[in-house]
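1st attempt posting a full record on here, be nice pls
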Amino acid sequence: MRALYDLPAPAKLNLFLHVTRKRADGYHLLQSVFVLIDWQDTLHIERRNDGRLHRHDLGTHLPADDLCLRAARALQQASGTPLGADIHIDKHIPWGAGLGGGSSDAATVLLALNRLWELHWPRQRLLQLAATLGADVPFFILGRPAWVEGIGEQLTPLPPSAALPTHYAVVKPPQALPTAAVFASPHLLMSEKPAIVADFLAAPRGYGRNDLQEAAKALSSDVTQALELLSGTFGNSRMTGSGSAVFAWTSDVQHSAWTAALPQGWTGRLCQALPAHPLVGWASDPENRGAG
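the predicted structure (as tokens):
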């Protein structure tokens, strides 16, 4: 196999996000539910025999040494393969949105190179490597809606029977929010009472809150405006991740022309939830070693 084309890297939403405490090392412990949506980047990856790793930006220009290259390098070093790759990225997920675009790209690179380099690593081994790259990367390797704890690395798949919302209106204002600035804000909230999976599953629409939302609003009036716009249109709104993207749960037919009312420079779309990552079968699980 010489190349893999049209590889999806879907975005994620945090249906809620509670900050439970701050560790001595400065990291905040969280509770959240992550779901996949069909707003995605597209990657094309070609195998190289000279061991070199190169990234080619087909749209938005990314930092010189982005998470995709770091993921490829980490897998190359951990596996000892002499092979390399050309990684082409067609970027559509906005940066600084809380949608996990960079982490999703890195996960797609790991899943694709695992196949292209014929490594045949099981999912658990990829998860361990993904955790060294960033808190959100393991979720995209897991590839299913999940209850998330710790700094984002503790994942529990939600049952397939979970009645999660299936359609979301998502808005991204022009301003990007640095995660560090949001967590450092004096407006950051803390949730003292632990969230419980059973409580969430009983009422997933509107459960909990995003403890980073007030901090983001203090940093960006765009976030406040986006929340008000979606709430006025759909009757609900919430920020995802550390922002600045905002979402509302809705139906697949409700307000189909709502994006026409967005301010100039804003991006918005109606997104559908994904029951699983399109590449979830590209890594095997212990109970299904024939997958992938």
